[in-house]
Specification:
The chain is of the alpha/beta class and about 100 residues long. Helices cover about 10% and strands about 15% of the residues. It is globular and about 35 Å long.
């Protein structure tokens, strides 16, 4: 827990063998595709519990990927999705006002 608000987009670029990622109890609001896509498919464990994740169109990319065997990340917003695990979301859940 370092109260990280945002991760650099290239932070995982040279980590193709990363299998476990713990980013719990920070201030991350969004799981950006350009940040996580380089390692997402290889992760066996992903945990982002305790962040204020916004489950909207900005995380729709995750729904098109395979989830790690163990995923612990929960929506904080919008209110109707608060507490839902991101691996239970559908494309109908994650939308944005245009």
């Amino acid at each position: 827990s370092n109260l990280i608000e945002q991760l650099p987009s290239d932070i995982f670029t040279n980590m193709p063998n990363l299998e476990s990622l713990y980013i719990n109890n920070n201030k991350l609001l969004v799981l950006e595709e350009n940040t996580f896509s380089p390692v997402w498919e290889n992760l066996m464990f992903f945990s982002a519990a305790g962040n204020g994740l916004r489950c909207d169109c900005r995380i729709a990319w995750i729904l098109e990927k395979n989830f790690p065997n163990q995923t612990r990340a929960f929506c904080a917003l919008p209110p109707e999705l608060k507490g839902h695990s991101i691996d239970t979301l559908t494309s109908k859940d994650v939308w944005c006002f245009q």
